[in-house]
Design goal:
Layout (H helix, E strand, L loop, with lengths): L1 E4 H6 L1 H9 L4 E5 L2 E6 L4 H17 L8 E8 L2 E8 L2 E7 L3 H12 L3 E3 L5 H13 L14 H10 L8 E2 H7 L6 H9 L12 E2 L13 H11 L11
Helix pairs in contact: 6-8, 7-8
């Protein structure tokens, strides 16, 4: 382990970086007390950093194109509120108010949110088709408000066909983390676009439906699955 002070950090930057890249941690001191550390990044660390950097950059306020807008569409479930960014649909809720929905999206995204009186025609058409069938939404979905692991889970959930279910353990195995069933459940709970990313098609291995992030909870989840012809009692892990 190497120890350097802030003067070294200023004057010997290249040398300190070489030490760190060689695998030797470098402790930076300020007024004699440890203040920071330089350590090499693994491929996983680097991927996480890049994804987080991209997320932070995308959600940094101050530019007009970073505005999130929302619209509504009627359905048998009630009024569905749909928020969207330049990258695609980024948030969904049912049975709330426009003001409450906008506040919730702003709290998660840290971006300005406003109602769009004239949403894009393609989006309106896609939403109407989706509401009619409650199947896969045409068009992009923006998952930048969740972390890399949650994104991996939610992207996998988008492939579950209507009328089928998977268990949390199934999804964990499919994404390469066989011991992460609980983490998969947490990712489902953080799903910002339920219905569009069908986390209602992920159930417990004991035959229970499990929780559901959309307003209406487990009762709504069971209703959605029944509408799709799913027999919950048969939804057990192999």
């Amino acid at each position: 382990m190497r120890v350097a002070n802030t003067v070294d950090l200023k004057n010997k930057t290249n040398e300190l970086v070489r030490w760190a890249m060689a695998g030797e941690p470098v402790i930076i001191t300020l007024r004699g007390k440890p203040a920071a550390a330089l350590t090499p990044l693994s491929e996983r660390d680097l991927e996480s950093f890049v994804l987080r950097y991209a997320h932070d950059k995308a959600t940094r306020p101050g530019r007009a194109e970073e505005m999130i807008r929302y619209t509504t569409v009627g359905s048998d479930l009630g009024t569905i509120y749909v928020a969207y960014s330049e990258q695609g649909v980024c948030a969904v809720d049912v049975g709330t108010s426009g003001e409450a929905f906008a506040r919730a999206v702003h709290r998660k995204s840290q971006r300005p949110v406003e109602r769009d009186p004239h949403p894009p025609q393609t989006l309106r058409q896609n939403l109407r088709r989706f509401v009619g069938a409650l199947d896969r939404l045409r068009g992009p979905v923006d998952l930048s408000m969740v972390g890399p692991f949650e994104r991996l889970v939610l992207e996998r959930l988008r492939r579950i066909p209507k009328g089928q279910v998977r268990t949390y353990g199934d999804i964990a195995r499919e994404i390469g983390y066989p011991g992460a069933a609980r983490a998969v459940g947490n990712a489902c709970a953080k799903n910002p676009v339920p219905l569009l990313v069908p986390c209602h098609r992920v159930v417990r291995s004991d035959g229970g439906v499990g929780g559901y992030s959309l307003r209406g909870g487990a009762a709504l989840k069971r209703r959605l699955l029944e509408q799709e012809g799913v027999d919950i009692s048969e939804a057990r892990a192999s």
